[in-house]
Every structure is written in C-alpha cells, then in structure tokens.
Amino acid sequence: MLFLVFSTFTFAAKVQYSMWEKGLGLEQYLEKHNISQDVLKSLDKDDEKLIHEVGYSYRYFELIASNGVLLQTLLPIGDELQAHLYRTHTGYKIEIIPISYQQDTHIALLEVDKSPHTDISNKIKNKRLAGEFTRVLKHSVDFRGIQKKDKIAIVYDQKMRLGQPLSIPDIKVAMLESHGHKNYVFKHTDGKYYNEKGNVLVQKYMQKPLKHVRITSPFTNRRFHPVLKRWKAHHGTDFGARRGTPILAAADGEVIFSGWKGGYGKVIKIQHKDGYVTLYAHQSRLKVNKGTSVKAGQIIGYVGSTGRSTGPHLHFGLYKNGRAIDPMRMVKFSTEGLTGKGKKAFLNRKTKYTQIINKIFEDNIPSYVWNSVDTVSVVPSMKKYYQNRGW
Ligand SMILES: [Zn+2]
C-alpha cells in the first residue's frame, strides 16, 4: 500500500521515515507544516477519536517535495489502521486507511540455554514473543526451576510489515518441558489462556469499570464499514448506563489525564503497572484530578454523553504501551472456568494444538513459518520436507 501510493510520484520528492515525538499531538504536527486544523473537520466522530491515538512511539512516513512542501504522511494508529494526510489541488485531506501486512502462523522449537526470555529474544529475534511467552506461562510454571536443555515449543500468529514483526504475537499454544513434565497453555476463542484442564491461567484481571455492565458496542480492530464504505475501528468497549452512574477505576494506578479531549469529551486516563493505561470517556462529571493515585474500584467520575456521543454511555479503552487492545481480554466478568459448549470447544482446540506441538516436539522439527516457507526462518534443506507434508 505504502509504496504503491508513493511510487505514483515521479518527480524529485523524497521519502522520510522518522520516529514520532512522544507526546506530540496531530494538531501541533499540522501547525508545523502550516496546514489548517480545518482538515480535521472532515473526520466523523469515530475517526476523530481514533486520531488521538496517532503517533505514540511509532515510526511514520512522509513524502516531501524538493521545495520542502509536505505531500503525504502516513501515521499508524494502532496496528491495523493509519491516518493518510495528503495534499491535493485544493488543499490537504485526511483519511483513515488500513495498514497492509502479512500474517503467518509460526512454529518455534528451542532448547533453554540461559532463560526462556533470553533464548526466545536471541534465537527467534522477537522480544515481544519472549514477553508474551513469559506472561502466559508464569502462572503455571515456576520459572526458577527451569534448567538448561528444558524445551520450549510455541505456535503463534505474527503480523509482518516490511520484513519487521508488527504488533504483539498471538500465541495459540505454548509448551515448556521442564523436569520431564510438559506444561501447556492454550489460548481460547475468548482471548484468555487456559491450562489442559480448562482452568483460566492469568488471574490478575482488571475490575469492571461499572458495577453493572451491559456491552452496547464491542472492541474492533479494522473492518470495512459496508454502509460508509470506509475503514473503521472501535478502540474500546462501550457500556450502556444511565447518566450519573459512578465510573470505577479498573485497577490501581495514577491519573495521567483528567479533562476534555476532542471527541472523547470529559475523559480520564489512568496509568497502571506493566505499561497498561485505561481510558474512561464521555463522562458527565470528573471526580479525580491529574496526579491522583487511585485504587481499583474507586469512583473516578460519572457516566455522561460529553464529546461526540449519541447518548449516555461509558467508552472504556485499554492500552498496552500505547497500543489499543481489547479491554475484554483483561476485565474479569466472572470467576468460573469453562462450562458446557465453551468447554467442548476448548477441548477440541486443545486436541488440535496438542497434536501439532507433540509432532514438532517428537520429530525435533526446527522452527519454521507456516504458509510462507520461503522466509528466512526456514532452513533451506528443510523446505522440501515441509512441502512434502503440505506445510
Ligand atoms: Zn466507544
């Protein structure tokens, strides 16, 4: 997408690839390039909210004419969408378009040398995979007991863009063999991780931001809106509630923003540990100021309909290191494990993934990428082997 857009220019313009300055707003960026803020008026209410996520520690692209005039800018918004600012005969325009990427299923098998985190980082060259592996396994395995030559197997989906991993890898199943015992974790369709028995593993969930929750609009990554014929995303979960309903902090943390922010209206942002930030938008009244330390469950404000909102509701957003993730993955709604249909579906997934992992493990198959066997992570001599097996 990117190069297609840029290659249509044949004159002496240059492409610049830079790091977005942390904390810089799009408004300031427009000002720097003498572009009227009016360009933002063409955005609808959802896009106006998304645009506030522009540029948190992202690299972005610019096309600059030989006379220094900005022709195009591509600014990532999360992992799926980007703002495309471009110059036309009549002035600048802005639109939200998808980021193109390739997604493959990867399989990794390795032996512990130093520690799972260090070894995954060094051998697979994917730090986020190392982080995710530790996160999902730490509740079922005592990492202090891990020894040299213990074995790790992971099946995961990874998005790639321009040869670089994009976004957090999506681990489907991970296995660590330690002291002769195979410890498995499986990701279920609800986004949570379970052990072989179907017990949920990650215990430290956030609390519900309202006492009683009713979801009116779920989190979505990019999707093509069939009526508007445009790419859209909803980076948060909407909960219907009456005006004045108390809003509760989802976890302990520090208020880092309390005030008015564009389409979000009256909004509070709370910084939690491990790089998580929660956002509570469209409030009628804010109860805590910036800099306040809050406890999980503490009242921070009240439901309203400020900003670009069609009725009283809470827009609840969750970010990890600046990137939007589905809040439902982290919010605890109930305590029980899987039952009935959910349990049956889980057991089917479990069987399928256990077979894959055991096959790799027993045959000692080196790491490879499914669906795209030409990539660098494949040992050339193994290519035929994979192809013969329909991989
Ligand atoms: Zn919303």
Labels describing this entry:
Nuclear Transport Factor 2, Chain: A, 7 helices, ten-stranded antiparallel sheet, disordered N terminus, 391 residues, binds zinc ion
What does this entry show, briefly?
By secondary structure, the chain is of the alpha+beta class. 18% of the residues lie in helices and 38% in strands. The N terminus is likely disordered.
How would you describe the overall organization of this protein?
This protein is of the alpha+beta class. It folds into three domains: 2-98, Nuclear Transport Factor 2, Chain: A (Roll), CATH 3.10.450.350; 102-201 and 339-388, Nuclear Transport Factor 2, Chain: A; 215-329, Glucose Permease (Domain IIA) (Distorted Sandwich), CATH 2.70.70.10. 18% of the residues lie in helices and 38% in strands. The chain has seven helices and 23 strands. The strands form four sheets. Strands 11, 14, 15, 16, 17, 18, 19, 20, 21 and 22 form a ten-stranded antiparallel sheet that branches. α4 runs antiparallel to α5. Mean pLDDT is 82; it is low at 1-10 and 371-383. The structure holds zinc ion (ZN). Zinc ion binds next to loops.
* Range of helix content: 10-25%
Question: Judging from the principal axes of the Cα atoms, what is the shape?
Answer: globular
For the record, give the distance between the C-alpha atoms at the N and C termini, rounded to a whole number: 28 Å
Instruction: Count up the helices.
Output: 7
Q: Give me the CATH architecture of the largest domain, please.
A: Roll
Tell me the domain tally.
3
Overall average residue pLDDT = 82
Largest sheet composition? 10 strands, antiparallel
Would you report the number of β strands? 23
Rg estimate, integer Å: 23 Å
Ligands, deduplicated: zinc ion
Note the run of SSEs as H and E.
HEHHEEEEEHHEEEEEEEEEEEEEEEEHEH
Low-confidence stretches at least 5 residues in length (pLDDT < 50)?
A: 1-10, 371-383
Content-based structural category: alpha+beta
| Oligomer designation | single chain
CATH C-level class of the largest domain is Alpha Beta
Percentage of residues in DSSP E strands? 35-45%
